[in-house]
Amino acid sequence: MSQAPSRPRKFVLGHLLGLLVVAAAAHVLTVWALPRLIMAEVLRVTRTEGSTSADGVLRPPPADHTARRIVMPSPDLLYATCSLDLSERPAQITANIDYPRYWSIALYAANSDNFLVRNDREHGARPLRWMIVSRDSVSPVPETRNVEVIEAPGTRVLLLMRMLLPEDAAGRAAAEAARQTLRCG
Amino acid sequence: MSKARWVALYAMAVLVGIGSAWLWLTRVGPSGIDAGVWRVNLLAGSPNADAYTRARVALGALLALDRRETLYYIARTDERGEPLRAQCRYRVSGPTPAARWWSITAYDEDFFLFENAARRYSVNVETAPRDAQGEMAFEVGPAAANGTTADLPTTGDGSLLLTLRLYNPAVSLQRAPDSLVAPRIESVGNCG
Question: In this complex, do A117 and B69 lie within 8 Å of one another by their Cβ atoms?
Answer without folding.
Answer: yes
